[in-house]
Design brief:
5-stranded parallel β-sheet; alpha/beta; globular; FAD/NAD(P)-binding domain; 2 domains
């Protein structure tokens, strides 16, 4: 049975901003036995389309979903687990945690030092620019969410300051194809978790600076600065009503540019070796990220220049209901490819680099789920 705290596709219905689109093109949006079959394979699904896609899959797969069933506790009991919900309790031999890694926004503690006159929002709160107070907006975080917010809010006519820390830069298209086509075809996305040199770091990497638009535009820091967004360094502190930014902006730019070029080198090498360049354009390299001549190191939040702060600083899982000692001090689940070896019969799916680099994307679920359920079936067979 599948326990769903709200409706099918609940996060997409109630916890996303209005203009959000998938980062992956439609042709890559697939689940076991179901894939996009519309007229725009190179487009990017909007929120309503994603809701419809997932809802249709739930119907076609005949999944035994119990909506509006909130799990309040999971505990080990006898030879399995005792699951308590607001609609009753269940005994089961195995449990799969499919709650993902984006249950709560990660907001740094320094948010408490922001003056009370400033409105604070997270990606769970923000819906569209019209809900913001008049005046400037500070967006903290420059991964996919942060750059999309900065672009949309700037287009609404507001002044935007974007605080930039570690980020992953990617072009939307490369050599005439969507960059995620290259990730898929070259095998980069299929790299297994036990082949990654630094797995902990790989699981913490921010989402790439991408946006899904009909024009397939590249939304990087160069595009944002050209549109009038002011770039500043990582927000390091808020003291006496002043936001303080680090001075390492150029280094952050150089590191992101270097990693992007290395990835493009990987694509080119694969194309040369496997003939993947037959229908692709020539190799490309992109302008380095332009650093401002003088990046400000502080911002007076009490001057009226900034009226709102949006914390696009990532997400974290919520295991407050999991009363099994398998969560580390940082709130991360201890597992080996989705198998929680410390608690036999407990599994996970949908976490970053669970078994492959593509694990958190919709199309990445199938391969991971197949291997996790094979292990689960073996466990049941061995423990009858």
């Amino acid at each position: 049975m599948v326990l769903e705290r709200g409706e099918v596709a609940n996060s997409w219905r109630h916890e996303r901003w209005d203009s959000l689109r998938l980062l992956t093109p439609n042709w890559l949006t697939r689940l076991p036995g179901s894939r996009y079959d519309g007229a725009d394979p190179d487009g990017y699904m909007g929120t309503g389309e994603v809701i419809a896609f997932i809802s249709r899959y739930a119907t076609l797969s005949r999944a035994p979903v119990r909506p509006q069933t909130v799990v309040t506790s999971v505990r080990q009991a006898n030879d399995g687990y005792h699951v308590t919900t607001d609609a009753g309790s269940f005994e089961c031999r195995t449990v799969v945690l499919a709650t993902g890694a984006c249950n709560r926004p990660s907001v740094p503690a320094l948010r408490q030092s922001v003056p009370a006159s400033i409105e604070n929002l997270t990606p769970f709160d923000y819906r569209h620019p019209d809900q913001l107070p008049d005046g400037g907006v500070l967006v903290v975080g420059a991964s996919a969410t942060g750059v999309q917010f900065a672009d949309e809010i700037r287009r609404s006519g507001r002044r935007v300051v974007l605080s930039v820390g570690e980020h992953v830069r990617l072009p939307r298209t490369y050599r005439g194809r969507d960059v995620l086509w290259w990730m898929d075809a070259s095998g980069v996305w299929n790299q297994r978790y036990d082949e990654v040199d630094d797995l902990k770091r790989a699981r913490r990497l921010p989402s790439p600076q991408l946006v899904g638009t009909p024009e397939r535009v590249t939304l990087d820091l160069n595009a944002l600065s050209a549109s009038g967004v002011e770039l500043v360094g990582r927000l390091s502190a808020v003291r006496d009503g002043r936001a303080l930014f680090s001075g390492g902006l150029r280094n952050q730019f150089a590191l992101a540019d270097l990693k992007m070029d290395r990835l493009l080198d990987t694509f080119d090498a694969w194309a040369d070796t496997c003939g993947g360049d037959r229908d692709a354009g020539p190799s490309e390299r992109f302008e380095p990220t332009r650093a401002p001549a003088a990046s400000r190191l502080h911002l007076d939040l009490g001057s009226g220049e900034i009226r709102a702060v949006i914390w696009a600083t990532g997400f974290h899982p919520d295991y407050s209901w999991l009363h099994v000692p398998v969560v580390d001090p940082k709130g991360e689940l201890r597992h080996d490819g989705g198998v929680v070896s410390e608690a036999p019969g407990l599994y996970a799916i949908g976490l970053p680099v669970l078994r492959r680099r593509k694990s958190t994307f919709i199309h990445g679920a199938e391969d991971d789920a197949r291997e996790v359920t094979e292990h689960l079936a073996g466990y049941l067979a061995r423990n009858r």
